[in-house]
Amino acid sequence: MSPPVNRPLTFGEQLRRLRTSADLTLEALAERSGVSVRTIGDVERGVSVAPHRRTVDALARGLRLDPAERESLLRDVRARRAVPAQGPRASAVAPHRVGDFSGREREIAEIVSFLGGAPAGRTAPVVISGLAGIGKTTTALEAIHRLESSRPILFLDLDGLSPAPLTPLQVVSGLLRQVPGAGDAAPRTLDDAVRRWRAVTAETPVTVLLDNADAEAQVRPVLTLDPQSAVVVTSRRALAGLEGVRRITLGPLRPEESVEMLASIIPADQRDAGDLRDLAELAGNVPLAMRIAGNRIAATPAVRAGDFSARIRSAENRLRMLVAGDLAVEAAFTLSYEDLAPSVSALFRSISVIDAGTFDARIAAATLASPVSVVDVEGWLDELTDLGLIEARGGNRYHLHDLVHLFAGGRRADAESVAETQARRARLRHWLLASLERAGAWFESDRSATDAAATGVTFPDAAAADAWIRLEEQHWWPAMQAAARAGEHALVVDAADALHWFSELWADWGHWVELFGLAVESSRALQDDRLEAMHLGYLVWATAVESRDRVEGLRLARLAVEVAERSGDHQQLGWTNYYLGWMLQQNGLDGGPAASHAALLHFGLAGDAVGTASAAAALGNHAHASGDHQLALDEHRAAYDRVQAEAPFTTHAMTYVVGTLHYFMALALAGLERPVEAIEEVDRALAIAEEVGAVNLVRLSLRVRATAYLAAGDGRRARADVERALDGLDLTSSTEMNTALRDTLLPLLEAADRLT
């Protein structure tokens, strides 16, 4: 029978009409759309009157509707979701106050102080937001009960994550029903409800807990209550549009609070020392997860906390282990997830391949299968943050809590194949390493970009590139390791090569030996002697500077020369002989000047200006090491003149070399006891070192200038330079550079004190 013509079609009736017009059975539409037969049947029968947007999108695709028809269908669904449900559907039954509540003392004290009333007598409304399962409601209840106020406590669940959250009228009406003497007749309009609400609370001040709010509009009418009353709102959203409220954002419990909470749940005979801390870490210090785990252990006397932790570690799906009765972490997250638009839920699943630390919108966008603007991704991330599915951090950074990360990964695994996930990880990896190569190119601007660097971040200047390399190390370094494991050897050697000049600026990173070691192995896998010689040279530097192993550095330098000779490449023969000369000198062995002369010859044949200047400077260093400061000064001046005769040094690498030449000339002048000239030369070195961000060259130059000031009898300026050089220096680091600076700067400080 056709529906009466005097009423509009329900969504289910529209869907049935569209399906039959397309000559599709339920099964055929299910196959086309990916929506189950049961779900389609529920919609058509009216069991589901307002399906989620992603379901409507899928059905529209399956029905092959044109854009106008699809948008009309979506508008109809949105309108139906906005229609208030009939009857008293709001829950006015407050959750029980947790008897074994622990932790959150700082946050509760802050909430109590806000609710206690300002000097003028008005209490400040409090909005508590945070991740699902983080304990917003229990914390709010605990704080309200600690107020020790005589005000009646009103509770209302606003159904913020349901398809149709409470309307403002339903919110105020639901509260009025809980106040004795407010009248039995329900208000017909929001204005009527607000007027009665003000009158009732003026006579009887109350404390209100609005739980699970969806939007500011639900809450605003309640805030019109008498100033003597108090309101606490909990929401996964930030509700940033509310004015004049105090905000509390809850994160995971602190480790000691987590242990205290678990100890209050798990009997003493079911746990050993250390078990609770381990279990807390596995549960991400999230209260809901820990309560679930603790309840499961306490309910099974034969199970010990350590055994349960072991089961969680080995479980294929850790979230599904954390279920006890009607408490479920997965269910809590699902409520937020199922309310997402398809594009946002796709991003949420996609970012689960980001395995570490915080990330920004550019990295999030790189995980997606299809190009999406960063602006759109930022909006989607903000929506996820508002729902508590991700955490916002400073500087437009975001973070996936461990348990949410597992949840998102599980949803991703449900939605795509293993091969698709591997492809997604590969896209992110390639994007990160391409960005890394682009960033490294700023420190060797004559570098030719590889095909991989056609993607990734574009940097406006060296400072931005430097900042990105340091900030995103938590992502690109694991990506490089993964590329090596995946056999993507060309990516590894290109990225490592792009970093070799930057490594001088970040010598204390701590992973250069491993990084250049990976590049050597990848070069060998590519059977490319030139690349292997190149990366062996970088590994020599890392071994000497980072590991302080000069003997191993010498072995690697000799091996690098052998490989370079096989390649026949003059540039690599120049660099490997340069490193060999350095290592021979560092080990106190003969042959250093000869190796540096050989490097100078090969650099000349290769036309490498930077290499030529570096080899010439090395000859001066050999003279300085032998105590011949005049010869050292002559060699460094000759190297400087050679650089000046070349084309203007516009690259970062050549600029850095010029700075080191000024430093070495200052060192020689100080050795010749010509402090005034040494100070002038150091000033030039410092200017360049500060321009290129060479922190260690700044410190070395300050050390030379402090020495020159001491020689000139100026203890005050010497001390200022030493203090500046020590500023930010890790005095506990065992790297070659830090150790050398520490061991030489501290005596200079004592000498300066004696002069002053």
TrEMBL record:
SMART domains: AAA, HTH_XRE. It holds the Pfam family HTH_31. SUPFAM superfamilies: lambda repressor-like DNA-binding domains (SSF47413), P-loop containing nucleoside triphosphate hydrolases (SSF52540), TPR-like (SSF48452). InterPro entries: AAA+_ATPase, AAA_16, Cro/C1-type_HTH, Lambda_DNA-bd_dom_sf, P-loop_NTPase, TPR-like_helical_dom_sf. Residues 15-70 form the HTH cro/C1-type domain. Transmembrane segments: none annotated. GO terms for molecular function: DNA binding. This is Regulatory protein AfsR. The lineage of its organism: Bacteria, Bacillati, Actinomycetota, Actinomycetes, Micrococcales.
